[in-house]
């Protein structure tokens, strides 16, 4: 089988698995929501509503029907791209909530991932090229500390220091309420302000985004640092690296042009899955910084016992993880041909 044919077969098999993975994730979410305590009718009408009115509402919503009928009805909704509506906010469609809050999560996630990748790859690469030195020891401590620090605690400490005490950054929110927020096709304030060449809005957006994205990026960078350091150190001991050294190639070129590429396979996987998980709602970061993203909205829905909203958002998050996982598999297959066979 040729390389092109094996790659096509590999990509096709991964794409065909996507509906199955989404279905499994959807089923698990449905079962967990049904098993959770609470009653959606109580959320809509209040616990003190007459029982007759509650029974009428259950019949209207189909909650009086057997579980398997409710399950197949929900699957039919999903096939028509209908995630349902909120049980708490007067029937607000969940797709509308996603369109309103998801851009903020994307903006925070992208900036956090850029910081995490730059810091993690840089620190890990330097440590791997200088084994058993103080730099290597410091890199290990950095990875352990950033991985172990609680997100909410670290975020509050940074807010107290840089926002409250020093006043360098704003405390919470995505944009000042007293100013007009950027508008545009993407919903990303930084990008939309640049598209309109409104540099005042751009710098204000970056100013509000800096502290939460720095918090998120630094804590995640420790994971990348450890993976890069371990895999790159193993790669630097391989035979082809020793052969490159014997030919007189500089250590910097060996590191950047030979070793780093082969050490990036597991790093790409972790980067992608972490990015997908963060798109699924960086809940702790968004809640800590009062960031109006989808993770914060999920937290509010859980607090309000809005089961329909929680279920719809979780299905959306699961779909994101599945899609990104497939893209990671395809990217890995391009980088390393051995994966296709």
Give the tags.
single chain, mainly alpha, MetI-like fold, 2 domains, 14 helices, 75% helix, globular, MetI-like
Task: Produce a short descriptive summary.
The chain crosses the membrane at residues 15-36, 106-129, 141-164, 199-224, 263-284, 313-335. The chain is mostly helical.
Structure description:
With 341 residues, the chain is mainly α. It folds into two domains: 17-79, no CATH class; 98-340, MetI-like (MetI-like fold), CATH 1.10.3720. The protein contains 14 helices and no strands. The termini are close together.
Number of helices: 14
In whole angstroms, the N-to-C terminal distance is: 9 Å
| CATH class categorisation of the largest domain | Mainly Alpha
**Mind telling me which CATH architecture of the largest domain this is?**
Orthogonal Bundle
The proportion of residues in beta strands is: under 5%
Q: Any idea what the CATH superfamily of the largest domain is called? A: MetI-like
Q: How would you classify the helix and strand content by structural class?
A: mainly alpha
Q: Examine the coordinates and then state which fold CATH places here, giving the name of the CATH topology of the largest domain.
A: MetI-like fold
Basic shape? globular
Q: Can you tell me the residue ranges where pLDDT is under 50 for at least 5 consecutive residues?
A: none
Rg from alpha-carbon coordinates: 24 Å
Compute the number of structural domains.
2
Helix content: over 70%
Beta strand count: 0
Mean pLDDT: 80
What is the makeup of the main sheet? none
Secondary-structure element pattern, one letter each: HHHHHHHHHHHHHH
Keywords: Cell membrane, Membrane, Transmembrane, Transmembrane helix, Transport
Domain ABC transmembrane type-1: 102-332
Subcellular location: Cell membrane
InterPro entries: BPD_transp_1_N, MetI-like, MetI-like_sf
